[in-house]
Every structure is written in structure tokens, then in C-alpha cells.
């Protein structure tokens, strides 16, 4: 299983690590740390030196309770730093975390190979056609509700079955729009309570039936720190444990803040 990310190839025979680079002031764990070109460059360098296979850049926070910023602000935060990073690291696979088709289009024009959409195209109906036109790799994530309200009593009758049906629909929509390379993300922490998150993790291997790569984002999330009654800053060990569970259940890509530990989990 090999993905063509704008001419840079990602072989998923073995699991890969997607490193998180937040350009936001308010992300739940590292908000405000990497908003300048200098700091973003340094962080990108650190992650690549530790073995990151993909750098996923986000300029709009999607933490629970976050407010949606304007498209203009997202572009202003993202594009100047993205241009610099792509020029500086021209052999690296970059992904952009956005749900807006215009932001996706601008990023793909700069040379990004992957669009990571937390809404799977539900919030911007032009997204799938834009990604299909650019022949890019597309990550479709499941989220119930909006970031500002998604954790207010999420309800499912059968969460695993509902997500399977959701992804079948989204994969079909992608194919209709000529997106040939789809990755799915169950969206841990996005409109799911603790029990629902752990049910999804327990059943994660079922999603391999969809015959597309599976990405998981468990890094320092509330299902870890709330379960252990600690803070996100203390949740690295728990992250490694749950990433290992996900890997045993055939996850293809793990999206993380801490590259070294994720690579060790894969190696072991």
C-alpha cells in the first residue's frame, strides 16, 4: 500500500508517524509554541530528526470548545510558514489540517501532498472536488457536531457500526470526486465520550474491512488524561500505551506530538 503524495511516496507496508505542527495560539496541548517561522522551522527540524514520516500543519484549533476562526485568518497564519517549510524541506511529505476548500487549494498549490479534513467534507461541499482535482491524498475524519459543542453529550446507538456506515458514504463521495487515495480517521475525542472512545479503540481493526489506510490521533487526548486523572502534559506514557494498542489493531498511521516515543512503539 503506497500513497503518492504529490510525487513523494509513502509506503505503508510498515506503520508511519505523522508529526503535529500547530500554528495556533489555542490548541489544547501546544498552542502558541510555534507561531513564527523560526519556531516552526525549529520544531519541524526536531520532528524530522526524530523520524517523522509526515508533518501535519494546522492553523485553526479544533480542540473541544474552540471557536472557528475566519478563512482569512487561517490563511494568514498558514501560508507564509508553509511556503518557507516546503522550500526548506523540499523532500518532506507535508499535510495540512483544514476543513476549508480554499485553504486546501492554496496549500496544494504550494506543494502539500495530503489534506487532513476533520469534517470529511461535511462543512465545505467543495472540498472533495478540490482534492480530487489536485489528485491529492485525503484524510476523512469522523466528528459528531462542531468543535464548540461536540463533547456535549454525544450519543450513538452503535458507534462502530455508525462510523463504518459514515466512512462507506464518505469513501464513495471521494471516489465520485476522483479522490483515489483516501485515509480514514475515527476521530478519537471528536464528539465521543470516554466509553465511546475506548469502544472504538477496542474495535479499531474492523475498519480495515474498508480497504483504506487507517490513521489514529490519540496523542495526549482527554481519553488518556481524564481516565488517569492527570494533565495533558503528563500524558505521554498513556499516549504510547494507546498507540501500541492501535498498532496491534492494524493502524497504518499514528498522529502524534512526540515523535521519538511513537517511533519506538512502532519499532518494538
Description:
This protein is α/β, with parallel strands linked by helices and 268 residues long. Helix content is 39%, strand content 17%. It contains nine helices and ten strands. It has helices spanning 37-49, 71-88, 101-110, 127-134, 159-176, 194-202, 222-228, 236-248, 259-267, and strands spanning 2-5, 8-11, 16-22, 54-58, 93-97, 114-117, 137-141, 181-185, 215-216, 253-256. The strands form two sheets. Strands 8-7-6-5-4-3-10-9 form an eight-stranded parallel sheet. Strands 1-2 form a two-stranded antiparallel sheet. α2 runs parallel beside α3 (101-110). The protein is globular, with a radius of gyration of 17 Å.
Number of helices: 9
Structural classification: alpha/beta
DSSP E strands, number: 10
The amount of beta strand, in percent, is 15-25%
Query: How would you describe the oligomerization state of the chains in this entry?
Result: single chain
Q: Which stretches of 5+ consecutive residues score pLDDT under 50?
A: none
Shape: globular
| Major sheet | 8 strands, parallel
Tell me, rounded to a whole number, the average pLDDT: 93
Strand order, main sheet: write it out: 8-7-6-5-4-3-10-9
Q: Radius of gyration in whole Å, from Cα?
A: 17 Å
Secondary structure layout:
Blueprint: E1 2-5, E2 8-11, E3 16-22, H1 37-49, E4 54-58, H2 71-88, E5 93-97, H3 101-110, E6 114-117, H4 127-134, E7 137-141, H5 159-176, E8 181-185, H6 194-202, E9 215-216, H7 222-228, H8 236-248, E10 253-256, H9 259-267
Parallel strand pairs: 3-4, 3-10, 4-5, 5-6, 6-7, 7-8, 9-10
Antiparallel strand pairs: 1-2
Helix pairs in contact: 1-2, 2-3, 3-4, 8-9
Amino acid at each position: 500500500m503506497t500513497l503518492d503524495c504529490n510525487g513523494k511516496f509513502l509506503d505503508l507496508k510498515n506503520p508511519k508517524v505523522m508529526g503535529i505542527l500547530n500554528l495556533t495560539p489555542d490548541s489544547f496541548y501546544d498552542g502558541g509554541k510555534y507561531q513564527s517561522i523560526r519556531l516552526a522551522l525549529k520544531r519541524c527540524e526536531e520532528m524530522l530528526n526524530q523520524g517523522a514520516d509526515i508533518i501535519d500543519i494546522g492553523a485553526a484549533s479544533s480542540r473541544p470548545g474552540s471557536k472557528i476562526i475566519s478563512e482569512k485568518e487561517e490563511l494568514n497564519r498558514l501560508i507564509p510558514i508553509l511556503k518557507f517549510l516546503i522550500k526548506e524541506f523540499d523532500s518532506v511529505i507535508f499535510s495540512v489540517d483544514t476543513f476549508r476548500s480554499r485553504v486546501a487549494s492554496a496549500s496544494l498549490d504550494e506543494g502539500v501532498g495530503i489534506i487532513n479534513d476533520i469534517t470529511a467534507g461535511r462543512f465545505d461541499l467543495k472540498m472533495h472536488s478540490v482534492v480530487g482535482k489536485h489528485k491529492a491524498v485525503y484524510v476523512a475524519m469522523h466528528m459528531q457536531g462542531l468543535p464548540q459543542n461536540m463533547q456535549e453529550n454525544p450519543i450513538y446507538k452503535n458507534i462502530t457500526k455508525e462510523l463504518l456506515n459514515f466512512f462507506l458514504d464518505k469513501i464513495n463521495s471521494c471516489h465520485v470526486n476522483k479522490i483515489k487515495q483516501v485515509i480514514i480517521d475515527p476521530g478519537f475525542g471528536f464528539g465521543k465520550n470516554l466509553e465511546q472512545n475506548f469502544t472504538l479503540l477496542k474495535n479499531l481493526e474492523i475498519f480495515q474491512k474498508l480497504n483504506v489506510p487507517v490513521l489514529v490521533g490519540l496523542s495526549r487526548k482527554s481519553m488518556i488524561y481524564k481516565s488517569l486523572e492527570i494533565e495533558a502534559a503528563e500524558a505521554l506514557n498513556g499516549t504510547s500505551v494507546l498507540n501500541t494498542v492501535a498498532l496491534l489493531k492494524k493502524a497504518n498511521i499514528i498522529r502524534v506530538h512526540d515523535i521519538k516515543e511513537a517511533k519506538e512503539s512502532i519499532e518494538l
